[in-house]
C-alpha cells in the first residue's frame, strides 16, 4: 500500500517510516496517538486485501497471535480494517534481527546459540499449548533485544491446529525453504514437530555459520530436507560438543516420530547442556561419505586486534550484539595442546613475556607457505579509496561504521589490525568508517506535560523548538498533543523538536518556572500576558529568591483574568543566632524612598513591577518577605512596584445576550458603553461587535463600546447608556415630515433636560 508518510491510519496510528516488507505485508514504525507509545503496524496491501484467501489468513494471524502473551513473543495490540486495507498493530521491538546477526561462515559461541534457541522454545511452547503452530520459524522472525531477551515475531502463517479450518489447499507449501521440515516440503500438514525441526535448522546455522542444506533453488533445498542426511554440527565446526550434536540431530530427524515430540523434552535437553549436565540425547551414526563437511578453512576465524573506540550510548544503537562479536573467537591452531602449554610455561619464565604476547596478538603465526602482506595505512582516506587500497593488497574488507565527532562521514577512522601489521593474504581486515556525528533516538513525548516533554527532549541531546498552544478539548490542558519530528529515524544531537500543547477555550498554559530566580520567573509570566501574585515560604532545599512552585503548576490552564500564585523561597528557617534583620514597612511609599530605607536596613532587594488600580505608579504595592518578617544580613527582599493603571484584554462577547456580555466585561475589570444597531443576522438583544474588538488591549478604566442588535422597524432608535450614571440619549428618526426627537436625561437629582427638534 503506497502512501505518503507520515500518514494517520484509522484516526489513531500515525505511520512515521517504513521498516520492512514481507511476502504478504508491509511493516511501519508508528505512534499510537491514543496511548502515546511507539508501535509497529503491519499493513496488508490493497491488492492482497481483495484476495479472500489472503484476508482469511491475515485475520487468522491476528486472532491467533493476539492470544499469545509471553515475554518471548512479540505482542499484538490491535487489528482491523481501514482505508480499504487490513492492518495489525504489534509491539515494537528495539534490537537486531537474528538474520542480521548470523554471518555466513562465522559460527556463534555454542552457549550463546543454545541460549537463543532455549528462549525460542519457550515462545513455541506457549503457542503450541494454545494450539497455534508457527510454521515459519527462521532467523528473520527472531529478534534480539538490547537487554538479552529473545522475541519470536510474525506468526504470519500460523493457524489454529484444527484441520477442519485449513486455509491452504492440499499440496500447497507455505514457509521458507531453507527452514522447511520434510513434511512441509512435501506439502503435508505441519504440526508442532515441524516447528521443532525448523528451530533445529536455526540452531544448526547459529553453530556452524551456514544452514544444513543449501542449493540454487528453493526446490533443490526442499528436496535435500526430504532425502539428504544432515552432517553433525561438530563435523563443520569442531567447537560444537558431541552432546550438542545429539540435541541438534534429534531435532532435525526427518521422521517426525524420531524428533522431540514436544517442546518440553527439547527445552530440558537444552537447559541441561547449559548447566553442564549429561544430556541423554545421543547423535545418530555419522552420515555416509557422500555428505562431506565443509573445508576446514571455511570455519577458521582470526581473532582481530581490538580497536580503540569512542563509547557510544547503547540506547542510540538498539543493538545487543555488535557485528564484531562473533568474529572475536580464538584462532584454531594445528599445534598440539601439550606443546602450546609447554611454550606458555617457558614464556612465563622469560623477561620479555609482555613483548612476546603483544607480538603474538598482532600477528598470528602464519601457515607454512602463506603469503604475508602489510596492512596499508588508510586512516583519514575516503572509504572507496581505502577499500581499493586494501583489496589491492590481496586482503578482504569488512566495514564497520561508527559515529565520530572528529572524522567526517565516509572517512576511515581506523583499521583492525592497524596499519603496518603483517598478516596472511586473504585475511579479513575490519575498516572502521565514520558515520558522522552521533545520532540519537527521538523521544516520544505525546501525552506528557510540557515540562516533562521538554526535559526528555533535552536529556536525549535535542533542543526544544517552537512551542505552539492549540485549543484541544480532548486532551488535558498542558499536555503535548503532537510533536515534529515524530520518533523514527535517528537524528543528530541538537536537532530542534517542535511541540503542540493543548489548552482549553480561552485558557493560557502556565509555564514551568520552578528553579528560576523570582525576577526571571515574573518576567516570563509578564511576557506570556499572565497576571500573578507572589508569596514566600522557607525552604531547606531551594535557595532564597528561587521559585519553589506555582499554583496552578506547570502545564495548568488559567483564564486571562486569573492569577498565578508564585511561591518564592525565603531560604531555610532562621535559627536563634543568625543575626536576623526585620523587613521595614515600605508599602505605599514611593519606590525611591522605599529602596533607601531597605539599604539603610542592611538588606538587598530586587524590583518587579505590577499593574495596580489602587496604588499610584511608582508606589510600593508589597514586599516579599512582608513587613516585620526576618532575613539574615544581606538577605534579598522582593519589592513589587506599581505601574499604575495597566491594560486589560477585551474578552470575546460577540453573540452573547447583552446582560451576559456586561457581566463578562465586569468580571474582566472593564466598563462599557452600550449602543444599538439594526441587524438581520444577529439575534435581537445579542452583541454584534465590540469596539475595540476582542483580544485587543484597553487601558484600565476605559469603557468598551458594546453594539447590541435590534430589530428593524419604522422608527430606528439608538440609545446609549454609560455605566454608573443616569445619563441617557435617545434618537428617533421618523418618516419624512415627522418629528425628530433627542431626549437627554441627566442623573442629577430632580433635574430633567429635554430637547425637541421638529424636522422640516
Write up this protein.
By secondary structure, this protein is of the alpha+beta class. The chain contains 18 helices and 40 strands. The strands form 13 sheets. A 7-stranded mixed sheet has the order 34-36-33-37-38-39-40, with helices on one face. It has a 6-stranded antiparallel sheet with strand order 1-2-3-4-6-5, covered by helices on one side. The longest helix is centred in the first third of the chain and has 20 residues, at about 110-130. The protein is elongated. Residues about 160-175, about 285-345, about 350-365 and about 720-760 have low confidence and may be disordered.
Total DSSP helices: 18
What oligomeric state do these chains adopt? single chain
Largest sheet: 7 strands, mixed
- The secondary-structure class comes to alpha+beta
Question: What attributes characterize this protein structure?
Answer:
single chain, 760 residues, alpha+beta, elongated, 18 helices, seven-stranded mixed β-sheet, six-stranded antiparallel β-sheet, 23% helix
Give the gist of this structure.
The protein is of the alpha+beta class and 760 residues long.
Question: What secondary-structure arrangement, pairings included, does this model have?
Answer:
Elements lengths: L6 E3 L3 E9 L4 E7 L4 E7 L2 H4 L2 H15 L9 E7 L2 E7 L4 E2 H4 L8 H20 L2 E2 L8 E3 L5 E3 L6 E2 L21 H4 L6 H17 L9 H10 L5 H4 L5 H10 L11 H12 L39 H4 L19 H13 L3 H10 L9 E3 L8 H10 L3 E7 L9 E5 L5 E3 L3 E7 L4 E2 L9 H10 L3 E9 L8 E5 L6 E2 L3 E8 L4 E2 L8 H10 L3 E7 L9 E5 L5 E2 L4 E7 L10 E3 L8 H10 L3 E7 L9 E5 L5 E3 L3 E7 L4 E3 L8 H10 L3 E8 L8 E5 L5 E3 L3 E8 L5 E7 L5 E6 L5 E7 L7 E6 L2
Parallel strand pairs: 13-16, 18-21, 23-26, 28-31, 33-36
Antiparallel strand pairs: 1-2, 2-3, 3-4, 4-6, 5-6, 7-9, 8-11, 9-10, 12-15, 14-16, 17-20, 19-21, 22-25, 24-26, 27-30, 29-31, 32-35, 33-37, 34-36, 37-38, 38-39, 39-40
Amino acid at each position: 500500500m503506497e502512501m505518503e508518510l507520515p500518514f494517520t491510519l484509522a484516526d489513531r496510528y500515525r505511520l512515521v517510516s517504513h521498516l520492512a516488507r514481507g511476502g504478504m505485508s508491509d511493516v511501519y514504525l508508528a505512534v499510537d496517538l491514543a496511548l502515546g507509545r511507539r508501535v509497529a503496524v503491519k499493513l496488508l496491501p490493497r491488492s492482497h486485501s481483495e484476495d479472500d484467501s489472503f484476508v482469511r489468513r491475515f485475520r487468522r494471524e491476528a486472532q491467533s497471535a493476539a492470544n499469545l502473551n509471553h515475554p518471548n513473543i512479540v505482542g499484538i495490540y490491535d487489528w482491523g480494517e481501514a482505508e480499504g486495507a487490513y492492518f495489525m498493530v504489534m509491539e515494537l521491538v528495539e534490537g537486531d534481527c537474528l538474520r542480521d546477526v548470523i554471518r555466513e561462515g562465522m559460527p556463534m559461541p555454542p552457549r550463546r546459540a543454545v541460549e537463543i534457541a532455549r528462549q525460542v522454545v519457550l515462545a513455541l511452547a506457549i503457542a503450541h499449548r494454545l494450539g497455534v503452530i508457527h510454521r515459519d520459524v527462521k532467523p528473520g522472525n527472531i529478534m534480539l533485544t538490547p537487554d538479552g531477551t529473545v522475541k519470536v515475531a510474525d506468526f504470519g502463517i500460523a493457524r489454529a491446529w484444527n484441520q477442519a479450518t485449513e486455509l491452504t489447499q492440499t499440496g500447497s507449501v507455505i514457509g521458507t525453504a531453507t527452514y522447511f521440515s520434510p513434511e512441509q516440503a512435501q506439502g503435508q500438514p505441519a504440526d508442532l514437530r515441524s516447528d521443532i525441526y525448523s528451530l533445529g535448522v536455526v540452531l544448526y546455522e547459529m553453530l556452524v555459520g551456514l544452514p544444513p542444506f543449501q542449493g540454487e533453488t528453493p526446490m533443490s533445498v526442499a528436496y535435500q530436507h526430504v532425502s539428504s542426511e544432515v552432517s553433525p554440527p561438530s563435523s563443520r565446526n569442531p567447537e560444537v560438543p558431541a552432546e550438542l550434536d545429539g540435541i541438534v540431530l534429534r531435532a532435525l530427524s526427518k521422521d517426525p516420530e524420531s524428533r522431540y515430540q514436544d517442546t518440553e523434552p527439547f527445552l530440558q535437553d537444552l537447559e541441561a547442556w547449559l548447566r553442564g549436565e549429561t544430556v541423554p540425547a545421543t547423535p545418530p551414526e555419522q552420515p555416509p561419505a557422500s555428505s562431506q563437511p565443509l573445508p576446514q578453512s571455511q570455519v577458521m576465524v582470526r581473532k582481530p586486534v581490538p580497536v580503540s573506540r569512542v563509547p557510544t550510548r547503547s540506547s542510540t544503537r538498539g543493538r545487543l550484539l555488535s557485528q564484531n562479536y562473533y568474529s572475536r573467537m580464538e584462532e584454531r591452531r594445528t599445534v598440539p595442546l601439550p606443546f602450546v602449554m609447554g611454550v606458555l610455561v617457558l614464556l612465563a619464565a622469560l623477561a620479555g613475556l609482555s613483548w612476546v604476547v603483544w607480538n603474538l596478538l598482532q600477528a598470528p603465526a602464519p601457515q607454512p607457505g602463506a603469503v604475508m602482506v602489510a596492512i596499508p595505512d588508510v586512516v583519514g582516506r575516503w572509504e572507496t579509496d581505502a577499500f581499493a587500497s586494501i583489496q589491492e593488497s590481496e586482503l578482504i574488507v569488512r566495514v564497520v561504521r561508527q559515529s565520530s565527532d572528529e572524522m567526517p562521514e565516509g572517512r576511515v577512522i581506523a583499521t583492525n589490525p592497524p596499519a603496518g601489521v603483517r598478516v596472511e593474504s586473504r585475511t579479513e581486515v575490519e575498516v572502521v568508517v565514520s558515520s558522522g556525528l552521533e545520532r540519537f533516538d527521538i523521544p516520544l513525548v505525546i501525552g506528557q506535560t510540557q515540562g516533562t516533554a521538554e526535559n526528555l527532549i533535552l536529556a536525549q541531546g535535542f533542543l526544544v523548538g517552537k512551542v505552539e498552544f492549540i485549543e484541544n478539548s480532548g486532551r488535558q490542558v498542558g499536555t503535548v498533543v503532537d510533536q515534529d519530528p515524530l520518533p523514527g529515524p535517528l537524528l543528530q544531537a541538537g536537532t530542534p523538536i517542535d511541540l503542540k500543547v493543548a489548552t482549553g477555550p480561552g485558557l493560557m498554559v502556565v509555564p514551568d518556572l520552578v528553579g528560576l530566580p523570582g525576577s526571571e520567573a515574573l518576567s516570563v509570566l509578564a511576557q506570556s500576558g499572565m497576571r500573578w501574585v507572589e508569596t514566600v515560604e522557607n525552604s531547606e532545599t531551594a535557595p532564597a529568591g528561587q521559585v519553589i512552585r506555582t499554583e496552578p503548576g506547570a502545564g495548568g490552564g488559567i483564564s486571562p483574568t486569573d492569577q498565578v500564585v508564585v511561591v518564592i523561597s525565603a531560604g531555610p528557617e532562621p535559627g536563634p543566632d543568625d543575626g536576623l534583620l526585620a523587613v521595614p514597612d515600605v508599602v505605599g511609599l514611593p519606590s525611591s524612598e522605599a529602596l533607601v530605607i531597605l539599604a539603610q536596613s542592611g538588606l538587598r532587594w530586587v524590583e518587579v513591577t505590577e499593574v495596580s488600580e489602587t496604588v499610584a505608579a511608582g508606589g510600593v504595592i508589597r514586599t516579599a518577605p512582608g513587613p516585620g518578617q526576618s532575613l539574615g544580613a544581606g538577605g534579598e527582599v522582593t519589592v513589587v512596584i506599581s505601574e499604575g493603571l495597566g491594560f486589560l484584554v477585551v474578552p470575546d462577547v460577540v453573540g452573547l445576550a447583552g446582560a451576559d456580555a456586561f457581566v463578562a466585561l465586569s468580571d474582566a475589570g472593564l466598563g462599557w458603553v452600550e449602543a444599538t444597531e439594526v441587524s438581520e443576522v444577529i439575534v435581537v438583544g445579542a452583541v454584534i461587535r465590540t469596539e475595540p474588538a476582542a483580544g485587543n488591549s484597553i487601558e484600565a478604566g476605559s469603557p468598551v463600546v458594546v453594539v447590541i442588535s435590534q430589530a428593524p422597524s419604522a422608527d430606528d432608535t439608538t440609545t446609549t447608556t454609560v455605566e454608573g450614571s443616569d445619563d441617557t440619549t435617545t434618537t428617533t428618526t421618523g418618516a419624512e415630515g415627522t418629528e425628530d426627537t433627542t431626549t437627554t436625561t441627566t442623573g442629577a437629582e430632580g433635574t430633567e433636560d429635554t430637547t425637541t427638534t421638529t424636522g422640516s
